[in-house]
Amino acid sequence: MNNLLYRTKGDKVIWTIVFFLSAVSLLAVYSSTGSLAYRVYSGHTEYYLFKQLSVLILGLMIIYFAHRVNYTIYSRVAQIGFLISIPLLVYTLAFGSNLNDASRWIRLPVINLTFQTSDIAKLALFMYVSRQLSRKQQVITDFRKGFLPIILPVGIICALIMPANMSTALLLGASCMLLCFIGRVPIKYLMAMVGAVVVLVLLMFLIAKVSGNKGRTETWEKRVESFFSKEDSEVPYQVQQANIAIAGGGTLGKGPGNSTARNFLPHPYSDFIYAIILEEYGIFGAFLVLSAYLLLLLRSIRIFKKCPFAFGAFLALGLSVTLVIQALMHMAVNVHLLPVTGLTLPLVSMGGSSVIFTSLAIGIILSVSRHVEESEGQQVAANVAVAA
C-alpha cells in the first residue's frame, strides 16, 4: 500500500477532485436510481449503486495506470487513435444502436457492452490536435502549412459526430477552436472557420426541410423553439421537472436520498443529475461541485504554464477544457440556461464508457503533471548541487 502511494504522483489537488466527484457520483446515482432499480430488479435498490461503484473503481485504476505512462507516448498513439476513430464513427452512423432517432452507440457482440464511439473520437482528436499544434508552431500563421493540417481533422470528426449528436460535435469543435486560439492560431482563421460552420449547419437544416427527411434536425429545432418560447405549455417536461427540483432544494437542500423529482424527471441519473444534486444538497452543494470543475481547470492551467514542452502543455489544457466546458453546459441545461442536450456531467453521471474515457483523460493530465513535478525536482536538485 505504501509503495502504491509512493508511486502515485501528479497534482494532489486534481487527485482530490477526482475522489470528491466520485463520492458525489455514488451519492447522486444511488439516490436517482433507487426507484428505477426497485421496479426493474424486484426490490434490489442498490443494483445501480454497485454498478456505478465498479465503474468508478475501474476508472480510478485507469487514472493510476495512465498517469504512470510517459505522456510523450500519447503523441505516438494520437495518429493511430485518430485514424481508428473515423471508421468507428462511420460504422456507428450506419449500424449503431439507435435511441431517440440517434445512432451513438456500438454494441460489442460477445460481452453485450455498449459504448459511445464519440468518446474515443474526442480523446483521440485532442491528442492529435495537441500533437499538431506543438509541431506546427514555426508555421502556425501559414494557412496551408499551419492551419489546415490542424483544422481539417477537427472538421472531419465533428462532421461524423454531428448527425447523431450535435451538442457533442459543437462542444468538441468549440473546445478545439479554443485550444487553437491558445496555440497562437490567427484569430482571422478561427473566425472564418466559425462562419463556415454556421453556414453548413444552416444548409443542413435547409436541405432537411426541402427534402422532407428531417431526421434529428426536427428534434434540434423543437428544442431551440421550446427554449425561446414564452409559453409555459411549450416548456419541455424534463425542464419543468428540473425547475421543480431546483426550487425544492433551496440553499441547503432536502438532504441525501430525499429527492422527489427523481420519480418524475427523465434520466435523473445522467442528463439531469445536476438537478438532483441541487434538490438534495441545495445551492451550497451544487456550488461545491461547480467549484471542483473550475479548480480542475485552474490546476490544468498551472500545469500548462509549467510544462517545458508544447505537446504536454496543450494536451493537459485541451483535455481539461473539454471536460469543464461539458460540465458547465450540463449545468446550464439543468438550470434552463441552454436548450436540452444529451450531455452528461463528467465523472458524476451514471455511465460506463463516459466514465472510462473521462478517467483516461484525467490520467493523461496527471501524467503531464507528474512529468512537470519530476522536472522541477531535478531542477531543484541541480541548483542545490551547484550551490554546494
TrEMBL record:
Gene Ontology cellular-component terms for this entry are: cell division site; plasma membrane
Q: Which reaction does it catalyse?
A: [GlcNAc-(1->4)-Mur2Ac(oyl-L-Ala-gamma-D-Glu-L-Lys-D-Ala-D-Ala)](n)-di-trans,octa-cis-undecaprenyl diphosphate + beta-D-GlcNAc-(1->4)-Mur2Ac(oyl-L-Ala-gamma-D-Glu-L-Lys-D-Ala-D-Ala)-di-trans,octa-cis-undecaprenyl diphosphate = [GlcNAc-(1->4)-Mur2Ac(oyl-L-Ala-gamma-D-Glu-L-Lys-D-Ala-D-Ala)](n+1)-di-trans,octa-cis-undecaprenyl diphosphate + di-trans,octa-cis-undecaprenyl diphosphate + H(+)
Question: What top-tier enzyme class does this entry carry?
Answer: transferase
Membrane topology category? Multi-pass membrane protein
Residues annotated as transmembrane: 13-36, 48-67, 73-96, 150-182, 189-208, 272-297, 309-333, 345-368
Please state where this protein is localized.
Membrane
Origin superkingdom: Bacteria
Alphabetized UniProt keyword annotations: Cell cycle, Cell division, Cell shape, Glycosyltransferase, Membrane, Peptidoglycan synthesis, Transferase, Transmembrane, Transmembrane helix
Enzyme Commission numbers on file: 2.4.99.28
**Which GO BP terms apply?**
cell division; peptidoglycan biosynthetic process; regulation of cell shape
* UniProt entry tagged with the keyword Transferase: yes
Instruction: State the Gene Ontology terms under molecular function.
Output: lipid-linked peptidoglycan transporter activity; peptidoglycan glycosyltransferase activity
PANTHER family in the record: CELL CYCLE PROTEIN, PEPTIDOGLYCAN GLYCOSYLTRANSFERASE FTSW-RELATED
Q: What family, per the record?
A: Belongs to the SEDS family. FtsW subfamily.
Protein name, UniProt field: Probable peptidoglycan glycosyltransferase FtsW
Recorded name of the encoding gene: ftsW
